[in-house]
Specification:
There is one protein chain. The chain is of the alpha/beta class. It contains seven helices and seven strands, in the order H-E-H-E-H-H-E-E-H-E-E-H-E-H. A seven-stranded mixed β-sheet has the order 3-2-1-4-5-7-6, sandwiched between helices. It is globular.
Length: 215
Amino acid sequence: MNDEIQKMEDRQVPKGKIDLIGCGRLGLRIAINLMQVHRGGPKIISAFDGQKIDGGDVIFTLLGAKPGQNKTDFIKQLCTHDENFRNIESHPEYITDENIDLVEGDVAIIVIAGGNTIPTAAKIIKHAHKRGAKTIGTAGIFGFGNENIEFKDISEFDDSNPAVEELRAQGISENHYILTTNKLIRDNEPVTPYTLDEVAKIITMNALKLLRDQT
């Protein structure tokens, strides 16, 4: 019996790679969740973001970050695992046509924000799909914290969410998972830490399931 248990434990080690594209308030939460996974999870977390930390990034500074530090470098700093067990790859840059080949994980989590990010997200999704990777993104996560969060494939949404519709217009119509509160910037609601915590939890759980299936 002990030998069987040992064999099962030996199989439950970190495997595969998750690309985390966007390391702001939501991305940081997801990164921390993924770092803490025990008995499985990703062996490599590849973090992408060209932004530096400023005084408004309170969750970063609460955790000890310094203004001016690259967000992805700080995420790498937070991970205290031996790199042979779980490694953070820091890419302090935005994804562009020139560096999109750096996106090479089994699962890509796309949580970029600021302006119209949908064309960039669509390019990343298409690139990941060509490689056989699974993808997760968002389509509005505003709200006070008690919203009904939906998580499902883009093909399962109706036509009431304009962010989903814009992704479809960019050619993304299936095999891409979307999380949304169905609240957008037009709704004049904040993005609270309560909402971000719940969104990060749901994205993490589903990314791990997809990673398990991929590896």
